[in-house]
Amino acid sequence: MASRRHGTPPGSPPGGHAGHQRLQRRLGVFDSTAIGLGSMLGAGVFVVFSPAAALAGPLLTLAVAVAGLIAYCNAVASAQLAAKYPASGGTYVYGRRQLGEWPGFIAGWGFVTGKTASCAAMALTFGHYAAPAYATPLAIGAVVVLTGVNLLGITRTALLTRILLAVVLATLVFVAAASLLGPHPDGAPGAAGELAALTAPATSGGWGVLPAAGLMFFAFAGYARIATLGEEVKDPARTIPRAILAALAGAFVIYLTLAVLLQWHLPPQQLAGSTAPLLDAVEHSRLSAGAPFVQAGAAAACLGALLALIAGVGRTTLAMAREGDLPTPLARVGGAHTVPLVAELAVAAVVIILLLTRDVLTVVGFSSFGVLIYYAVTNAAAFTLPARPWHAPRWLNALGFLGCLVLAVTLPPASMLVMAGVLAVGVAVRFLVLRRRRT
């Protein structure tokens, strides 16, 4: 294994680079769980049910269950590895230590590129919910402010995440209550619902369950943020597994409940064609006056997911820079609160460039493909672990690995081609850099 090759203890920074300053362990189980759950209950929960329903039709709940099963396999694998290697970087580190440098690089590169695009999408979605006419300036402002919060230290990140998570949970409870109370007395949906009902595509089903599960899986992937923050967690062997599984369990119950309620409350065509299904559910109910509250909750969800995303991408960038797979200045840890200063600023700069140059909402579909490849490496790395708890048998790792690959290849072809191209560019550049170093 690479860990023996480097001769470093599990708790040391990746690659055994003793000259790199360590981050400080400040997060307990509660804060770690909040960060993971806040990442999963991001903007996706307010939009993902419609495209998933269009693909899966009446089998939407089955798609949620399939996505949850694969996410559970990945969560168990992540928990095993994070307890053994409690350093920043997540699967990038695990892949290097257990499988070798190239699998680790592919996982890390897919995560950094895919999630950076997701950061831009989350920021822009926030802008559209808050004030559509000023979406881009608001998105840039959100990136700047939240990066500033992250630079104040991981405890500030956890505090703001808890606040935003409370707002999002209150919003989802309100949506559930509106759905249970039934349609509006006059039977007329809101404006968004009328438009969706007129333009909705026919719902599918059957084989559409797998691509729908691939889309739903994207909404489950936030627990990776707990693993990428492994160097800042207290008692990681105990805290990380508990936080990952608790966050995933909470998200699964919420998603399954919402899927059942939305299918019960909204006509199939309207659910499949809506651009804001949770907002439609409220506008179509006896609590339609609460629609602005749902919009505010969606904005808070975007901010919470963006906050955790920037922190997670920054830590993976830090780990890759420590190993020389990204420019080494990105490995600098500094500031009064011991944070990956240069990496976080670099991530924020790239996100702002994306926001200024194009509409990232049209190009972030490949992120799901990158995340599934990331977790395929996670499962492969966990499969090689000799010591394992009773609840993490090897067949579960094998199921997670195969499940990730199946969901990845059933995604829309454009998503696969774009992410495959991004991965190929990263591999080619790394190959040329390594060859130049040798010569």
Explain this structure:
The protein is mainly alpha-helical and 439 residues long. The chain has a single domain (24-438), classed as Amino acid/polyamine transporter I (Up-down Bundle). The chain has helices at 2-6, 29-40, 49-56, 60-84, 91-98, 101-130, 135-151, 154-181, 191-199, 209-220, 224-228, 236-265, 268-273, 277-283, 291-322, 341-357, 366-383, 394-409, 413-438. The radius of gyration is 21 Å and the shape is globular. It starts with a helix and ends with a helix.
Mean pLDDT: 81
The helix content, as a percent range, equals: over 70%
Rg result: 21 Å
- What is the count of β-strands? 0
Principal-axis shape equals globular
CATH topology: Amino acid/polyamine transporter I
* Biggest sheet character: none
Distance from first to last alpha carbon: 26 Å
Q: For the record, what is the CATH homologous superfamily label? A: Amino acid/polyamine transporter I
Number of helices: 19
Total tally of structural domains: 1
CATH architecture: Up-down Bundle
Give the topology string: H per helix, E per strand: HHHHHHHHHHHHHHHHHHH
Parts with pLDDT < 50 across at least 5 consecutive residues: 1-18, 188-202
Just give the CATH class. Answer: Mainly Alpha
